[in-house]
Amino acid sequence: MNKFFLTLLMLLLSAPPLSAQKNVSAKLDSIMTLINQKRYTEASDQLKPIISTCEDSPNDTVRISLAWCRACTNYGLHRYQEAIKYYKQYISMCDQRYLKGPYYAMAYCWIGNSYLILGDGRTAEKYYRRGLLRCNDQEDLREVRSYILQGLHFALQLQGDSLLAEESDKLAFAPQSEVAADDNYQSLMAHGEMQILEMRKNNQFEECLPAYDKLIAEAKTAIGIYSEDYARLVYSKALVLSFNLGRKEEAKPLYKEVMQLAPHLKCNENVLGSTSRYLQILAEENDTAKLTSLLPQAIRLYEECRNAYYPLCMLYRQIGNGAYSGEHFQLAIPYYELYLTHQEEEAGRSYLEIPNMLSVCYIRTGRAVDARSLLKRLLTEQERNLQKEENADLLPTIMHNYGRALMLCGKKKEAITMLKRANNLFKKLTGQENALTTQYLKECEKS
User: Fold this and answer.
1) For residue 222, what are the contacts with CB-CB under 8 A and spacing of at least 6?
2) How far apart are CA 1 and CA 39, in angstroms?
3) Which of 121, 188, 213, 412 could form a disulfide with 159 if both were Cys (CB 3.0 to 4.6 A apart)?
4) Tens digits of per-residue pLDDT, 142-164?
C-alpha cells in the first residue's frame, strides 16, 4: 500500500473504538496497526481467532471494522477475490447504517484495484466510477477522488481507450489551488466532467459539445482563462471535435487558444497536448510552412518541460502520424526517424507501431532497402514482445510489410516465406486470408 493509503489507515486507527467489548476492539486496533505496517500475514493470523466473536458482536462498529480488516489483509496478501468479497461486505454494512466517509469511498477504489489486477478492466471501471460518485458528494475527499481517477486511467487503458485514459489522468492530477473555493463551482466541475466522460464512453460526442461549452463558460467566469481548468476543458473539447467527430477545422482554433496560454501555465500538459495535436493537423494538411514555423517553438517547449507523459518523442510521433494519415509519406519520414532517435518509453505500442509505419513510408517513397533493414531489425529485437497475445494483430502486418520489402528488393524466395507466414497468422486471427498478401504471393510465385 502506498503512503496515501497508509495515511488513511492511520486516520482510521486514530478514531476511538466505540465497542463495549473493549478487548475485541483493542485487538482490532492492534490488527489495524499490523496492516499499517504491511505485516499482513500476522494480521491475518491474529484475525482468525476473533472472527466468530466479532461476527456475533451486537456492536456495529466491531462488525464493520472486522469486514475492513479482512478486506485489507486479503488485499495485502494478494488474495484479490477474497478482498473484493469483504470490501463489498463493508460497503453493504455502511449502506445499511448510512455511514459514508473516506473509507466507504476507498472501498470502491480497492475493489476497482482488485479487478484491475485480475485483468477485468470493465468491472474495475464500474467500481471506480461508483467511488467517484461518492467522492463528488463530499468536499473533503479530493485526494481520494484523485487516486480513484488514477485507477480509472489504468482501467480505461486496459480496455484500449487511450484518449479517455488521458482525460481521466488529467482530471486526477488537476491542481486544486487554482480552483475557486465556491462549492457550487467545485460540484459543477466534478459532476460535469464525469458526465462528459460517460458521454464519450457511450459515443455521444455531439452531446459533449454543449456540455463542454457550459463548463468552459463557468470556468472562465469563476477563475479566468489562465487556469488549469479552463485549459483542460478547451483542450478536451478540441479532442472531441478533431478525433471523435473529424471536425479538425473547428478544433484548430481551440488548440491554438490553449497553446497561447503557455506563458501563463508553465509546462502545462494541456498546452503540451494542444501543441502536438495542432502540429499533427498541420502535417495531415501538408501545411509545411506553418509546421516549419511553429516546430522550433514546440521543441523548445517540450525540451524545457521534460514531461514524462508528454516526452519530446511524442511530439515527433504525432506529427509523423498526421503526415501518415494524410498520405504525405515523404513528410512523415523525418519525424518518424526523429521519434526513433529520441525514443523514450511511452504507454501503448508505439515502439512497435512507429517502425512499422516508417517502413510503409519507405516502401511508398521507393526506399524498399531501408524498409527491409528496419523491419528485419524490428522482428529480431522485438521478437519477444511481438509474440505477446496483445500484439497478435500487429505481427502479421509487420511480416506482410517485410515480405513486401523483400519482394521489392528482388528477394523473391525470402519474400514468399515471409508472406506465407503473414497470411497464416492473419487467417488464424480473422478466419480468412489477407487479400493484398495473397496478391503479393501470386506475383512472387509467377516471377
Assistant:
1) 180, 182, 185
2) 11
3) 121
4) 566 666 777 676 666 666 555 55
